[in-house]
Design brief:
Helix content: 10-25%
CATH superfamily: Survival protein SurE-like phosphatase/nucleotidase
Number of strands: 11
Number of domains: 1
Distance between the termini: 60 Å
CATH architecture: 3-Layer(aba) Sandwich
Shape: globular
Strand content: 15-25%
CATH class: Alpha Beta
Amino acid sequence: MTARPLILITNDDGIESFGLHAAVLACAPLGDLLVVAPARQQTAAGRSKPIGSTGELTPVTIDVDGVTVAGYGVDASPAQAVEHALFELATRPVALAVSGINFGENIGESVVVSGTVGAAIEAASFGIPALAVSRQTAPEHFFNHRADVDFLVAGQFLRRMAAHVLINGLPPGVDLLKLDIPAAATPATPWRWTRISRRRYFWPVAPERQPGQPAPMGFVLRADPAELEPDSDVRAVILDGVASVTPLSIDMTAKVDAETLARWGKSLGG
């Protein structure tokens, strides 16, 4: 009998996140699950690997709608949690890594800040097909992994995509897929191939600071129809209300031909 594929479920919102629980429910029919995630909220951690992480493992039991899975919370960043999963906890090769389902959309040029995407990139760097999955939410839910948010439709999109990747692999040249689901999506909502927008979606706002007092930066969301590229992830999710699927590569080299580079660098010598 062929063993069921081993699927790593992780995220950046923490092991107690309802979004992670939704990913568990979505992927349970597809294979055996290895659930390893940060022990606490790690939103916007990117692919960071803080030297202060202790790596302490806390066993947990996740019970969601009749599906019960053992997992681990780790005192670690999302990327470090992936490393613990792959090199300490997995008893056989991982066939697919799923990072999410994140509270809040991960779209636009700031995706490199995302711990959801960072964890997926970490898995992809070891040759594991990976999905970074996010659901659009109101900004007040971005940092609340226990908020009452309906992940049913996002979970359905995830299950379809995960099943397809397990059977067919990723498209040639693609290391991971970034999947973003609109808040108002239904099972009938279409999806679209997209690219990461060069336009900022999360725009910094200076704090109202009192003299001598700490004050973090704020942000607002911007999606200007006149500026957004027609094939961008921001336009798909925010303006057109369709699911966005963005193929990503861990090779961040700019797509510029050698002749153009030679002309640009001619005067530099060497």
